[in-house]
Amino acid sequence: KESYGSGQLVFHIFCDAKSIPNRDRAPTNSELISMFISTLTGQYSGSIVANHLQGICTWHIMHRLDWTHNDTEIEALLKATVTLAPTSSKCKPQELYTVTVLGPMHDNLDLTDPAGAAVFACLTTTFWYTAHVGEFTVPCLDSFNSSLHVKPSDITHKTDQGGLRVTNFHLPRMKLALLSKDVSWVQQQGPSDPQATLLNHITVNDPPLNGHLFAYKHKGSHHPLTKSKFTTTLSSVAKRAGIKPIQGHGVWISSTLKYLLCNVPFDVVKIKGHWVSDTFLVYLCHHTQILAPYIQVSPPFHT
C-alpha cells in the first residue's frame, strides 16, 4: 500500500532531479515514463516499481488526464526491473504450515484459555478457507467495525449436493477488494478441523452476536482478535513446539500449497485464495509433488 500510494511522490522527486518542467509531468509521455522506470531499475524490487507506475497511472485517470503509452516497451522495462532487482528485495521462500504442523500447534495451545481458543480457531478458519489473516482479525483493539469486520451473525450453514454440511462466512469486505463476499469451509479430520475449533471458541468465549467473530474474554469484557495478538501468540506456540514461526502471508500461502498438493487445479486454487496474479508460485515449495499429476502420460484429471 505504501509503495502504491507513494508512486506520485517518487515520480515528482525524479522529475525534480531531472529538471522536468511541470507542464511535461501531467499528462506525462512515454519517453518520460520509460526514463522513470529505467532510473528505478536495480534500486527497487520489480513489484515496487510496478506499484509506483500504477500509482501514477491511477492519478492520471482520477484527474481525467490522458494515459497513452507504449505498452510493449513498458512491459519489457518492467520485466527488466524484476530481473535486475537487488538481492535484498527478493522474497525468500515462506515458512509454511502443513496439516501435520498444525497438530503440534494444537497440542501446545491451551484451548480452554480464551485467547488460545480464539487464535487457534482463527488459524484453522483462515487455513482451510485460504484467507488473508487480516480478513478475520482487526488492526488494533479499538478498530472493530461491524460494517467492515466479520461477526458471529455472519455465519450460516448450508448443505452441498452430496449432503456435506458447509459453514459459510459473509465477509463484509475482502482484503483485496472493497466488496463483500461469502466464503466457506467444511469439516476436516484431526486437530486442525475448523468446525471443532470454531465450536470450542464459541463455547469458551461466547463472542457477541454482532461483535468480532474471534473476540475473546478478557477481564470481564471481550477483546477483538488483533493481527498482532494472533501472530505473537502463534510465534510463542511455534517456539514451544520447535517449529519456525510463520511470517507475513504464510497462512494464506500454506493453504494454497495444501490444496495444490491435493491435486486441486491451479486455476481453482487461484480463485479460492483470491490471488490476483501468479505471484504465489514464487513462494511455493514441493514443486515436484505439485506438478507430478499434471505431467503423467495419462493425467488422472481433466486438463
How does the SSE layout of this entry go?
Blueprint: H1 2-5, H2 7-17, H3 30-40, H4 46-62, H5 71-83, H6 99-107, H7 114-129, E1 155-159, E2 165-171, E3 181-186, H8 194-205, E4 216-218, E5 221-223, H9 227-241, H10 250-261, H11 266-272, H12 280-283, H13 287-291
Antiparallel strand pairs: 1-2, 2-3, 4-5
Protein name: Unplaced genomic scaffold scaffold_2402, whole genome shotgun sequence
GO molecular function: DNA binding
Organism: Paxillus rubicundulus Ve08.2h10
What is this structure, in a nutshell?
This protein has 303 residues and is mostly helical.
Question: Would you state the CATH class of the largest domain?
Answer: Mainly Alpha
**Major sheet: order of its strands?**
1-2-3
Cα Rg: 23 Å
Q: What is the approximate shape?
A: elongated
The first-to-last residue Cα distance is: 36 Å
Instruction: Report strand %.
Output: 5-15%
Poorly predicted residue ranges: none
Instruction: Indicate the percent of residues in helices.
Output: 40-55%
Q: How can the largest sheet be summarized?
A: 3 strands, antiparallel
InterPro entries: DNA_brk_join_enz
GO molecular function, one term: DNA binding
Organism: Paxillus rubicundulus Ve08.2h10
Protein name: Unplaced genomic scaffold scaffold_2402, whole genome shotgun sequence
3D structure, described in words:
- This is Unplaced genomic scaffold scaffold_2402, whole genome shotgun sequence.
- One of its GO terms (molecular function) is DNA binding.
- It comes from Paxillus rubicundulus Ve08.2h10.
- This protein is mainly α.
- 45% of the residues lie in helices and 8% in strands.
- It has 13 helices and five strands.
- A hairpin with a 5-residue loop joins strand 1 and strand 2.
- Helix 2 packs across helix 4, helix 3 packs parallel to helix 5 and helix 7 runs antiparallel to helix 8.
- The longest helix has 17 residues.
- It is elongated, with a radius of gyration of 23 Å.
- The model has no long low-confidence stretch (mean pLDDT 81).
